[in-house]
Each structure stands twice: as structure tokens, then as C-alpha cells.
Write a structure and sequence with these properties.
Helices cover 86% and strands 0% of the residues. By secondary structure, it is mostly helical. The protein has a single domain, classed as ABC transporter type 1, transmembrane domain (ABC transporter transmembrane region fold), CATH 1.20.1560. α5 packs across α6. The longest helix is centred in the last third of the chain and has 55 residues. The C terminus is likely disordered.
Length: 329
């Protein structure tokens, strides 16, 4: 006699992606945020060490101070790198746990005895959700809260340090970066629309694979069109993504140009020291990566929310088609 698990007793996914993240890894997110805070609090220290080494130690010929500052620099770099290694490993563990949880949840909702009634559609969704869609959605959980905290913290710490050193140059660099606040969200929304359409089309491809009867050849033509559509969507995503990266890199190099021009003029006229210009150049390099990582985080977050919503819809559908089977048993 087969024991039937009714839909009401099966695990259900929270309606919101944030709700799922918090339910699955709430206490781990707190620990990751603590590690992220420790990392970004150290981010401006190497810049200050560089400035002091050039302005004070080298300019004054203080050899002992040069060695002590060099040792301090490598010490801070090793501590910061070690914290990042621990944080990233922890993130990976949280992400993989979430992927496993999603796959188990969907697998438990599958009733293999009803495939005779829903073969193509059910199997297409199962293959797509369990094998591919859960990977990016669960993988994002590890960086869902700690990543924006880390990158915003680095940006705030480094820009705050730059404002303290030389407000005019810092504000000019911020002005150069500001167009990204306009074009990045617009381009990201366009990417999100294509990503959602891609997931839906791949599910249709999966359902077509599960069909065994195509005597008239119509399915083959339909599948070919779906595959072409996925190709077109992917190419659209690539074009938008790499165009965004190009524009972001251009803004970064404009910032370098502004720092070299205005900073060099100030240094030549004695308004600032050469070490300050070097610290600004290092600061811009340190800001560029966090800004790019933050943009990538927003991109992954938006796409993952779309995919999670589709997974929840698939989960609801799987539970719904179990109901007749459960009632009959």
C-alpha cells in the first residue's frame, strides 16, 4: 500500500525571495554581515599608509619609518585578505545549502504517479527547476545581504577618506561617477525582462523534450524556434551587459583623468602633497571594483527575484496537480 503525502503536508516556499533568504539562512546572514563590516572598516587603512609613506617617510628620508609603514601595509593587507577568504568560503557554504534546500523542496512536491496525465508539462518544469533554475537562485543567497553591506561600506569609507583629504577632487570624482546612477538601472531593467523571458522559454524547451510523439514534425519546428528565441535573448543580455561594463569603465577612467589633471595642478602649485594624489589614484581603483561588484549584485538580485518568483509559481502548480491524486488515494 502506497503512503500518499498530501499537498498540505509538503514544504512550501515563502512567497517573497527575501522571506526565503531569511528563513533559510537568517543567522548566517548576520554572521556574514559582521565579517563584511570588518573588511570594509579596513579598506581605507592602506591608502593612509601609502600617503604617509610618500609624504612623511620618503620626503623626510626616515628609513626606519619606511620599513615600519611597509610592514604595516602588508600586515593590514594580509588581515583583510584573510577575512575575505573566510567570508567568501562561508558564503559558498550558505549558497550551496540553499541550492540543496530548493532542490529537495521541489523534488518532494513531485508526484511521479501523475505523469501519465501531465507528462510533457510536468517533466519539462521538473527538469528545468530542479537542475538549472535552483542553482543561481540558491547561489545568490550567500551574498544577498553581506555583499551590498560590504561594497557600500567600502565606497562610503574610501570616499569619506578622500573627502577628508581633498574635498574638491573627491567631489569632482563623484560628479564623474554620477551618470552611472541613470544608465545602470535602465539597462538592468532591460536585462531583467530578457532573463525572465529566457527562463519561460527554456521551460517550454524542457517540456518539448519530454514529448515522445512528434509524428507530424510540428514539435521539432516549434522547438527550433524556441531555441532561436533563447539565443536571441542571450545575445541581447550580452550586449546590454557588456555595454554597461564599457560605460562604467569609461566613467572610471574619466575619474582618473580628473584626478591626474586637478590633483597634478594642485600638487604643482603646492596646494596638496604628491602623496595625496597617489592616495586618490589608489582610492579610485579601490572604489571602482566595489562599484562594479555592487552593480553586479543588483543585476543578480533582480534576476534571482524573477527566477524565484517563477520557481514559486512552478511549486504551486506542482502542488495543485497533486491534489486529485491525493484525494483519490
Amino acid at each position: 500500500m502506497r503512503i500518499v503525502t498530501t499537498p498540505s503536508l509538503l514544504p512550501r516556499l515563502p512567497r517573497s525571495y527575501l522571506g526565503y533568504i531569511w528563513r533559510r539562512s537568517g543567522r548566517h546572514q548576520v554572521a556574514l554581515c559582521v565579517l563584511a563590516a570588518l573588511v570594509f572598516l579596513l579598506s581605507a587603512v592602506p591608502l593612509e599608509i601609502q600617503r604617509r609613506l610618500i609624504n612623511d617617510a620618503i620626503a623626510n628620508g626616515a628609513v626606519p619609518a619606511i620599513f615600519w609603514l611597509a610592514l604595516a601595509y602588508i600586515g593590514v593587507a594580509l588581515v583583510e585578505g584573510g577575512l575575505k577568504m573566510v567570508m567568501n568560503t562561508y558564503r559558498g557554504w550558505v549558497s550551496e545549502n540553499s541550492v540543496r534546500d530548493l532542490r529537495r523542496t521541489i523534488s518532494q512536491q513531485i508526484d511521479h504517479d501523475i505523469h501519465a496525465l501531465h507528462t510533457a508539462e510536468a517533466e519539462g518544469i521538473e527538469i528545468s527547476v530542479v537542475l538549472s533554475e535552483t542553482e543561481p537562485v540558491g547561489g545568490f543567497v550567500g551574498i544577498s545581504l553581506s555583499e551590498p553591506l560590504l561594497q557600500v561600506g567600502v565606497l562610503a569609507t574610501v570616499f569619506g577618506y578622500m573627502l577628508h583629504l581633498q574635498p574638491q577632487i573627491a567631489l569632482l570624482c563623484l560628479l564623474v561617477f554620477s551618470p552611472q546612477f541613470v544608465f545602470v538601472p535602465l539597462m538592468q531593467r532591460a536585462i531583467n525582462r530578457r532573463a525572465a523571458a529566457r527562463v519561460q522559454t527554456l521551460r517550454e524547451v524542457g517540456g518539448g523534450i519530454a514529448v515522445t510523439d512528434d509524428s507530424d514534425g510540428r514539435l521539432a519546428v516549434l522547438q527550433d524556434g524556441r531555441i532561436d528565441h533563447v539565443f536571441a535573448l542571450n545575445m541581447g543580455i550580452y550586449k546590454l551587459k557588456f555595454s554597461m561594463n564599457f560605460l562604467m569603465n569609461a566613467m572610471y577612467h574619466f575619474g582618473i583623468t580628473a584626478t591626474l589633471g586637478l590633483g597634478g595642478w594642485y600638487a604643482a602649485t603646492g596646494r596638496i602633497e604628491a602623496g595625496t594624489v597617489v592616495a586618490f589614484l589608489s582610492g579610485l581603483a579601490k572604489v571602482n571594483d566595489p562599484w562594479g561588484d555592487l552593480v553586479n549584485w543588483f543585476r543578480e538580485m533582480a534576476v534571482s527575484r524573477v527566477k524565484y518568483r517563477l520557481i514559486v509559481q512552478a511549486s504551486d502548480w506542482l502542488l495543485k496537480i497533486r491534489e486529485p491524486s491525493a484525494d483519490a488515494a
